[in-house]
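for the recovery benchmark. tokens below, seq after
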């Protein structure tokens, strides 16, 4: 019996740095600096004044966010349907129940959907964390470099 070897062409993955600029058109965010964190499973964004409500029988959340690091302005008001609520273990080991929403992100002209958790990241260095599930099978991360993707 002769086996036929299948020639699989490996998908060439784009290389990104440990921090990158991206936009979140779904939330009206034109630019936000995100920390790319392969140690974090989920992605997170700084959210405050979080309020839940129901629209056409579906759970929604409204919240505000500051897209610029270390600044209180501008402040963006966003609304999204709640996909889920999950317990997330943060880098300091604390567990927190977070709302999960679906958004589209745009990094260097490449647009794709991700799940995003809402949390208070005000004391953190970055307003957004891009976790490994969001970049899986799309990018390789060069941990020694930053801003390898052209700005949107």
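predicted aa per position
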């Amino acid at each position: 019996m002769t086996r036929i070897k299948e020639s699989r062409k490996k998908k060439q993955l784009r290389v990104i740095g440990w921090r990158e600029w991206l936009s979140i058109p779904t939330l009206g965010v034109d630019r936000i600096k995100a920390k790319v964190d392969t140690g974090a499973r989920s992605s997170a964004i700084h959210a405050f004044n979080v309020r839940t409500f129901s629209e056409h029988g579906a759970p929604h959340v409204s919240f505000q966010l500051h897209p610029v690091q270390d600044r209180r302005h501008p402040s963006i008001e966003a609304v999204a349907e709640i996909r889920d609520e999950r317990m997330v273990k943060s880098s300091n080991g604390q567990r927190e129940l977070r709302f999960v929403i679906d958004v589209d992100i745009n990094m260097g002209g490449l647009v794709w959907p991700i799940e995003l958790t809402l949390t208070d990241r005000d004391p953190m260095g970055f307003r957004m964390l891009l976790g490994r599930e969001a970049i899986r099978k799309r990018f390789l991360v060069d941990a020694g470099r930053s801003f390898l993707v052209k700005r949107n």
